[in-house]
Design a protein that fits this description.
This protein is an alpha/beta fold and 335 residues long. It has two domains: 178 residues, 3-Layer(aba) Sandwich (Rossmann fold), CATH 3.40.50; 128 residues, Rossmann fold, CATH 3.40.50.1980. It is built from 13 helices and 14 strands. The strands form three sheets. Strands 9, 10, 11, 12, 13 and 14 form a six-stranded mixed sheet that branches. Strands 6-5-4-7-8 form a five-stranded parallel sheet. A hairpin with a 2-residue loop joins strand 2 and strand 3. The protein is globular, with a radius of gyration of 20 Å. The protein starts with 7 loop residues before the first helix and ends in a 5-residue tail after the last helix. This is ABC transporter substrate-binding protein.
Amino acid sequence: MNAASAAPARLAPAALAGVLLLTGCGSAVRSTTSESEPAESVTIENCGRDVVVDDVPGAVVGMHPAQTELLLRLGLADHLAGQAQTGAQALPDDVAGLAADVPVIGDVMPPSREDLLAVEPDFVYSPTTYEFTAEQGFASIDQLDQAGAAVYVATGGCAERRMGGEVTDLFTDLENIGTIFGVEGAAADLIAQSQADLDEVEAAVAAVEPLRVAQVYVDGTTLQAIGAGIEYDILSRAGADNVYRPDQAAFADFFAATVTPESLAAEEPDALVFSVYDEAHETATREYLETTFPDMPAVREGRLIAVSSSDVFPGTLGNVAIVRQIAEGLYPDAF
């Protein structure tokens, strides 16, 4: 996925302090279905609440292209009543045609309460709980419940999970969505493929000498360090020795922290990973890093690795893809 495919509105510094906080919590399937005979009623624990689905949903809204993609890859195109935040990220070419006739609601931001309710959804699948912030004019989970729509939030998108999120949280989502829609086989295949991709990277980096890597987010001259959550897990799986870690005081309560250029320079990281929302942001970030840290090993060695902001969203196949992208950027000879 191109680093330019994510939405600036979702990853601005204000969003780092607000939107991205609204991500993370485990969920457990409590009833099962078969591929041929979906259960009439399914109850799944998600973000500390029960999601009850009485029948296979037939009017589904994917609240972000990452969730829409997963639904399409599970063979559920005919179940879609809407797709949201389509301006945030393009669907991959191999599935985009399947959504050509699905109504678009919202651009780079979640749809308004009125626009979402207008398509009369019976199931809404979202990357985070932010999409249901009533204060932003979005339909709340309670309002959707009253309208007869069940809501499922990506496991990594529940608030309680944000600090300890992992790439494999996606597998929980696939298992749960597979159960809800009676497509366990398709979900299992997607999990197996993703796990194989992770295993391949793990084997490739097993013998490398780990490089010290810092993950940052730059907006203008504001520098954020990322030290916890799914981003930390992504770097670890890519074979990195994380400069910033959850056991450090700066990341005790939140996965990101503002740092000074001097403190980052003092760490002398071998590589920098940074998320970007479009090509202009990537260009500006590279220029800032190269100008501010000309003597840093990461800059001298040309190890500046840009990843799409959308690929660090919870519950996306991008979480798996950028493990390989980062590992190949750090250890090209291992692949």
